[in-house]
Give the backbone structure.
Amino acid sequence: MFFCLHAWADDGRDKLPDLLSAIKQARLSDGFEVRLAITLVDAQKVRSAPIKVAVIGQVNADRQRFLVRGISPEAIRNRYIATMKNAAGSITAFEYGPDEAGRPVSLDLFAGIFKTDFVIWDLFGAWWDWPYQTDEGFGEVKGRKCLSIRSRPAAPSPVKEVVSCVDREHAVALSTQLYDTQNRLRRTILVEKLMRRNSGAGVTAKRITIVDEHGAHSEIEVYGGDEQYQVSPETFGALERLSGKPNSP
Amino acid sequence: MNLFSLALGNLRRRPARSSLTVSAIALGIAAVVALTTIAWGFEVSWQKANDARGTDLIVTRTGSQNAMPSPFAGTAIMEQLAHYPHVQEVAGLLSEMLSIGDQSPPIFVFGWAYGSYLWDHLKLLQGRWPADRNEPVALLGTLAAEMLHKRIGDRIELEGQTLQVVGIFQSSALVENGAVLITLDRAQSITDKPNKVNVLNIKMDKTASEADASFVKEQVGKTLPGFAAITSGELVSQNAVVRIAKAMSHVTILIATLVGALVVFNTMLMSINERTREIGVLQALGWPRSRIVYMIICESAMLALLGGLIGIAVGVLLAIGLEHTELMRGKIDAIFSFPFCVAVLGLSLFLGIGGGIYPARMAARLSPADALRHE
């Protein structure tokens, strides 16, 4: 009886706010850089040559901003996608070329960048701030036990619902399913492999698969990076200029 | 007929079983040889690289146990280290595993401080060294040039930057021969890590003693929180890849020992069961129990020795094959030594004797009358 009570108390399901807080805390960073190799696999399992991008990010309570830089192939080399979410929750994104040459274009936040399934909007993990979060019980992803959380927004959104399965020990979502307003599953983000952070504190995704509604998918592998990237005033300079905001590191 | 030829004859009378037993032992020993030589080889080739550079101490982040130590801003630390007594030179190094172009397997790319002592041990076979700290050029180790099919004047693409190959070099360390070498500034630019290094290499002057090196280590520990000054040997032994490879090799040795001993045990037990009458005849002819024990142990030892010899040969071939796979080429340098082979043969012999003791004692305990009645 004692063991039953102990197990019930320790299953953590009454501690959802703590887990949500840990997830948000784990996302915070003064600056990081990850370099990703993205391979597209179509519904017939044909694989593309890898697309390499670098993502620089800065995430704090007031502001989240990311800079995606195309590395290869030639077609995307030094093409930039800069995006920012302010404290009010509004997100802006621009695409521009080297030295801000050419006309910067505003981006569809829900479209995949560089023709992959990697969607700008997903970078912000906006669903963790949504007001309706419900515990859906325990699940398993790739043999790892996780807690399923259903997130719903208060205001209308192109993504109506997100179901995540979170590794409670590391506060990492092992799978994330995003549903649209017609309740269709638009994409599933699966963490295939985790790696220990360089600092030794906690783990982060090493390999991710994003499966779209048609069965095609993008395999994303982290092949380099810097957990303590030094964000300079110029890193997000173009973004600040394009969005008409003052430049600050 | 002596004991050796009698035991050999017994084994040859059951060729299928003897072959299977030898194969099982050989497989276990081959796994031990391949994994151990690769684990040691990986460690030794990194150690060789550090030694060849002439580095006495390495400053890195504490707790950084990944394959590549995590990068840090090195300028201020370098200045501090340069003021310690007997420190002749401090040189930054930034390394990454990167693909050249889109499809090739990742290769080591080393960024070394321009003009530092790190370059001194390399032998330039063709071409020239970089002209300045920021020139967009690369040098290839002999093995890297061969793997990438590149020559002087060719271009390589690293993380979207195009570099011209201006030199081919040779090093005494395999990891350097299989690497692309660029200046530190260029490496920082390519990997978008301005002013960052993975490690700082310290070269002490000729008058420095071990006590001076210890003093530097102590000072770094006291004045640079989060950093440690260690020897190259300590850095290599803390490397996650080395530790995993060594752990795997130890586990394989343990499993191979257990499986090998059990296989020999099972084979000899079955053999004795089948030869109960024969053992009874030998006892009736006046063979002492000790001679029967020797005969059985001699058989099991012969099986294990033969398995060991074949296993060593297969293991060496496996390790050489692995060294030459596209993914591993230029990264591991399997080490084979005579003492290691003798130790592995000793392990095989131990398996044979260990696995044969109980069956031998069982055979010796048989009474001749019971043995002769055995169907």
Notes: The first helix of chain A runs from residue 2 to 10.
